[in-house]
Amino acid sequence: MPRVKVSVAGDTSCSFFQRAANVAASLELLFPDQVETEIIELESRKAYKAWLPKALEKLKGGEDHTSSPIAYVDDSEYIGGCDDFLEYARTQFGGGAAGPRNGHGVGNNGSRSKVVASAKLSIDAESKSGEFDYDLVIIGGGSGGLAASKEASELGAKVALLDFVVPSPHGTKWGLGGTCVNVGCIPKKLFHHAALTGEFMQDAPDFGWDVQVGAHNWEKLVDNVRNYIKSLNFGYKVQLREKGVKYLNKLGSLIDAHTVKTVDKKGKEETISAQRIIIAVGGRPRPLDCEGGELAISSDDMFYLDSAPGKTLVVGASYVALECASFLTGFGYDTSVMVRSILLRGFDQQMADKVGEAMEKLGTKFIRGAVPRKLEKTDDGRIRVHWDEGSDVFDTVLAAVGRLADTSKLGLENVGLKTNHVGKIKATHSQTEVPSIFAIGDCVEGMLELTPVAIELGRNLAQRMFVGREDPVDLRSIPTAVFAGLEYGCVGLSEDAAREEYGDDAIEVYHTHFTPLQWTVPHHREYNVCYTKVVVLKDDDERVLGMHLLSPEAGEVIQAYGISLKYGMTFEDLRELVGIHPTIGEELCLLTEPKSSGKDAIKSGC
Question: Among candidates 213, 192, 218, 216, which has minimal Cα distance to 201?
């Protein structure tokens, strides 16, 4: 099936729009090689009505469409409303698509087997390695670029890696390693742990420790995390040198299919040539699109603030928004999250709501159904934020409303490559439309924006280039986690996506609310806040389609189940697994209560 762009537009207050949008987002997550999703959110029924006529002008059919939502394909083919779109999703991606979606195929004998596609490269038949300065040049020194460069060099290729960090609009800059190491996963997890440490100290007296908890020292945390990140930056340079990779701290752009222009920090320009080029530039945060939006910082700046952020407004409902808001609340700062519609789009919505509920119980405030209209400086140097229903003054405003691929200055037009509306490049198994140019990681259309995915893509591509490996990266059933106070870990399909794909009658969900043992002694901990559920396909031996866990250390627990889902674990397999007692992970092995029973599924005892 050729790759299609699926668009769903509607009034954000419309439940039918939210349902269709969730399904559309799930399609892109499940079928990154087949679907690009565009969600168009209009803030009110009036705004949707005003937008609709112009949209209908470019569609074949649908002239009489008036309701929310509207769905269409490739900016031209009308699908219809919510029910029409769900039927389209089932027809085009359901039924026989169970194998690719859920991590396995079923052979004629009924046994499950790993689905492996071929991604053998057929490139550069006309060019030879000796004609160029390098066998491979990689633009971008993040997770994917580093992995590809080291792997290729070990396989005998002559490799150069270009990496140059353009400072954020607020002047923040960092070293080698990309978003994850410098302004993403690593500092985020350390700040998350710092907030949890505060929680542990509140528990300590009930465990017999005489602990006095003072105010959090922001400056000390930032300094210690910076020092660790600097050690990682240095370590990557050492690794590249040891692997024989030429590291160039220069900004790279394409002149033609085999030539890269480099510019150093002094503005000196040079050119280098390569038989093959990998684009691995990742992305940068999207700015706020309103008057005064430049006053807001982004996640590029949060972890490098020299002084505490104070009263903070986080704009957005992505995992980045919720994770940052969570640790700021944990540090004791007055923190609010401005949410336009729903939390964690594309994730299981029951779990997303529970993440929000847990955050509220810990003190994070939510401003629902709102977007900032204007930001302005106050006389005392703070920021007043205006939205339709009110305004308030904050010390810091953090924009976490999505990311744009960092491709605008790459010279893609020089080689005939185009990008989508967020700057992402189309690539099939990392191969672009130009035979000598490849793309990996967050700058690729439909790709999961996860560091381990970029790393595996980089290693895999290098092996396909230089030792003839043919199989692509297996992107099915990849575990992930949201580190927001109570962590949310998941792997496989959301309950929403499973029901939309197979129908309500085909799905069962086993679930329970529970209390971790370590929460039973502290008097301030609320019981049965943690929750887990397992989504199964009833008519296929109750094969597990998805697993979801809201608890401390959920990310650590859910990681191990990724391989189980890939190879067709059934609910009986899970039940027969003997757990480690007493742990959170054991809760997944003890599930018995089906959601369809209507019982509350609150666990008692151990």
Answer: 213
Is the pLDDT assigned to residue 394 strictly greater than 70?
Answer: yes
Q: Strand, coil or helix: what is 305?
A: coil
What secondary structure letter does DSSP report for 64? T
CATH of 293-403, one of 3.40.50.2000, 2.40.128.630, 3.50.50.60, 2.60.120.10: 3.50.50.60
Top-level class of domain 4-93: alpha beta
Q: What is the CATH code for 480-597?
A: 3.30.390.30
Residue 167 burial (10 A CB sphere; 0-12, 13-18, 19+): exposed
How do strand 269-279 and strand 259-263 relate by DSSP bridges?
Answer: antiparallel
**Average pLDDT of the residues of the chain:** 91
Ranges for all domains in the chain classified under CATH 3.50.50.60: 129-284+404-466, 293-403
Percent above pLDDT 90 for the chain: 78
CB 582, CB 590: distance < 8 Å: no
Write out pLDDT tens, residues 84-97: 898 888 788 753 33
Respond yes or no: is residue 581 known to be catalytic. Answer: yes
What distance in Å separates the CA atoms of residue 428 and residue 438, rounded to the nearest whole number?
9
pLDDT > 60? residue 116: no
The structure tokens 């439309």 sit at: 433
Residues 6 or more apart whose Cβ sits within 8 Å of residue 91:
none
90-99, 354-363, 461-470, 511-520: least confidently modelled range: 90-99
Q: Can you name the CATH fold of 129-284+404-466?
A: FAD/NAD(P)-binding domain (3.50.50)
Q: What is the pTM of this model?
A: 0.84
DSSP string, 376-418: EE-TTS-EEEEETTEEEEESEEEE-S-EEES-TTS-GGGGT--
| Cβ count near 507 (within 10 Å) | 22
**Which residues, 6+ apart, have CB-to-CB distance to 565 below 8 Å?**
102, 103, 476, 477, 491, 492, 544, 545, 546, 547
Mean pLDDT of 331-345: 97
Number of neighbours of residue 231 by Cβ within 10 angstroms: 9
Residue 319 has pLDDT above 70, yes or no: yes
Q: Which residues have a Cβ under 8 Å from the Cβ of 433 and sit 6 or more positions away? A: 416, 417, 426
Please list the residue range(s) of the chain that carry CATH number 3.30.390.30.
Answer: 480-597
